[in-house]
Fold this protein.
Amino acid sequence: MKKTRGFTLAEVLITLAIIGIVAAITLPSLLVNVNEKAWDAQKKALHARLAQAIGQMNTLGGYGTYTEDEEGTATEDTAAESFILDALSKVYKINNVCGADKLSSCGIPSKITTLDAVSEINFPSKMSELNEKLLNGGHETGEEGDIANTKAAAFETVNGESIAVFYNPLCSSDATVNHYVQNKMCVNFVYDLNGSEGPNQVGKDVGFITAFYNKNPVVVAPVPYNKDYSAMVPQYTEDAGTLDAPAVCKTMGEDLRLPNRDELASLFVNAPFINLGESTIFYWSSSVVSLGINGLAWHQSFNAGHRARNTRSKSTGYVRCIRN
């Protein structure tokens, strides 16, 4: 009778060790992929809910009180908290509200990691800390209003997200062609999908949603790609063999696209989170005003916040892509 040979204990132990090593190598990356897919779905759902809520408001401007003395120091500032309590909570279910000195009580982390995973920065507690260029960018004043250096406030959602609110009670409607985006920004939400629990990194569990224009608001939630296209390009050319701005994003990844003008404005508002912003060279948006070789498209400066329409084929600019 033929005898069969089994595995020895040593062979079994070696096999289990190999399986353990392979699992240790592959499981972390698999878990990261699972987390990122879950975060992507949660981001889209959060954007949809906030956009729907803001769409139900009659106005985004004018909530709370913000006053400054002659030196520009705020003497009274209830704007962001009032916006949450008197406006947002009427159309959006909120669990908890926290002032600027207690953001952590709403799960806001004290520090976050930027998109490139290189820098760790303090979480901003007022508008000028969100982006100092919002206050010194030379934006218009007068009938359209200015931007207020308001303190942040925060709230928690029923789904467990922690959201900081940077609110401009002086925001205007979109009335000019060549203008700065600062006073068009009404509300900027910076969220952490799982509160202070890690990784607290932009592009993963941390992101932003921005509402522009007091009347008929536009709510955008761009998810930036962590790389600029290294060369300047025109927005459009007649030469099919030449890369134009929209096509650049497709060459960098099939899931990428050029942001529209309001998405690009949101990237400017949140530039410190994604390490954008010192160049006076502009970035192209996908928002086209007119077609043809002499047509116009919107661009955005990250130096001071100015955006305007530029000739699509005769000007060159940088490209920053966002994810679909």
Observations:
- The chain has two domains: 29-61+78-221, 225-323.
